[in-house]
Amino acid sequence: MTGAAPRVVARASALAPSRGPLIARARRLLFALAVAASALAVTSSGRARDEGLTARLSCRPAASVGRVSCELEVEAADGRLTWVDALVLRAPSFARPLRARVGMRQATASTERRVRLPIVLVATEAGSGQLEVEARAVRCARSLCASAVLPARAAVEVGPVREARP
């Protein structure tokens, strides 16, 4: 075999035209399809909605300045809640939140389908206004899990109770 001529092996990539632009175009197309598919799963408000979840926010009226106690309850119609938190989006200027985010560690009550989160405001003067909260949750049902964002609002009343006039 000493007198045999060396074999020249050409790689297919050297003989074929470059596939770099084709691969880049395919990646862009796949990315665009992924974005379009995720857009279909999101509502017009830009947030994922889950029909099997409800969020209720309530605040107890406070007779004077100081602590105002509110409670957010998130409930799943079926399945189980694996993660829940609350973000305070807006609070009246006279009653600021102690925390902007409340997580499951602070829950006052928790079952597989229901979580109650305390939201505490500190009122510096009397007034009335609206508290807006965003409940975020992950619900698992039939081995599938989905995240959702639910808006919730409640009236905040601080000061003497006003009598209704006849």
Your description of this structure?
The chain is of the alpha+beta class and 166 residues long. 15% of the residues lie in helices and 46% in strands. Strands 1, 2, 4, 6 and 7 form a 5-stranded antiparallel β-sheet that branches. A hairpin with a 6-residue loop joins strand 1 (53-59) and strand 2. The protein is elongated. 20% of the residues are buried. The model is unreliable at 32-47 (pLDDT under 50).
SSE class: alpha+beta
Beta-strand level of the residues, as a percent range? Answer: over 45%
- How many E strands? 9
Mean pLDDT: 81
Task: Summarize the biggest pleated sheet.
Answer: 5 strands, antiparallel
User: Measured on Cα atoms, how large is the radius of gyration?
Assistant: 28 Å
SS summary, helix count: 2
Low-confidence blocks of residues = 32-47
Q: What is the overall shape?
A: elongated
Order of helices and strands: HHEEEEEEEEE
Helical fraction equals 10-25%
In angstroms, what separates the terminal alpha carbons?
A: 116 Å
TL;DR?
The chain has 166 residues and is α+β, with helices and mostly antiparallel strands. The chain contains two helices and nine strands; from the N terminus they run ααβββββββββ.
